[in-house]
Amino acid sequence: MENANEKNTNGENPNPDLEQIVFNLVLHGGNARAKAYEALDAAEGGNFAQAEKNLEEADEEFYEGHKYQNLLVQGQLEKDITPNFLVIHAQDQLMTALAEKTLIKREISLYKRVHELERKIR
């Protein structure tokens, strides 16, 4: 990927190298998971507005990571990049974040139902 040190108007590298892509996949995947678990904690405590905010932040982090995943796939199509352990690990981090985020959204829906039922019986 050419011009690895070039920056765009946002201060981001428009052509990150493989190491930068892997780093960003792990970073944003981890951030997405952390925000999803913060949402789950908020929902468990009955703070559903905060849970929704955390889920939105988790989605933003995931989609930021997904941009780097697309760069990786494009780079593999354009060049002969051999996947290595770090690339596989980075991809796994992002996909695990997606799976956990999806499951946590369902768990939060259940917390909402439980919260509503508890309120009705009190």
Automatic annotation (TrEMBL):
Residue numbers carrying Phosphohistidine: H89
Q: Which cofactor does it need?
A: Mg(2+)
What is the enzyme's class at the highest EC level? transferase
EC number(s) per UniProt? 2.7.1.-
The residues that the entry says bind Mg(2+) are D92
Question: What Pfam families has UniProt attached to this entry?
Answer: PTS_IIA
Family matches, as CDD domains = PTS_IIA_lac
The active site lies at H89
For this UniProt entry, the molecular function terms from Gene Ontology, in alphabetical order, are: metal ion binding; transferase activity
Q: Can you tell which superkingdom this protein's organism belongs to?
A: Bacteria
Looking up InterPro entries in the UniProt record yields:
PTS_IIA_lac/cel, PTS_IIA_lac/cel_sf
Kindly state which keywords UniProt assigns to this record, in alphabetical order.
Magnesium, Metal-binding, Phosphotransferase system, Sugar transport, Transferase, Transport
One biological process term in Gene Ontology: phosphoenolpyruvate-dependent sugar phosphotransferase system
User: What PROSITE patterns does the annotation carry?
Assistant: PTS_EIIA_TYPE_3
Q: How is the cofactor bound?
A: Binds 1 Mg(2+) ion per trimer.
Which protein, by its recorded name, is this? PTS system, Lactose/Cellobiose specific IIA subunit
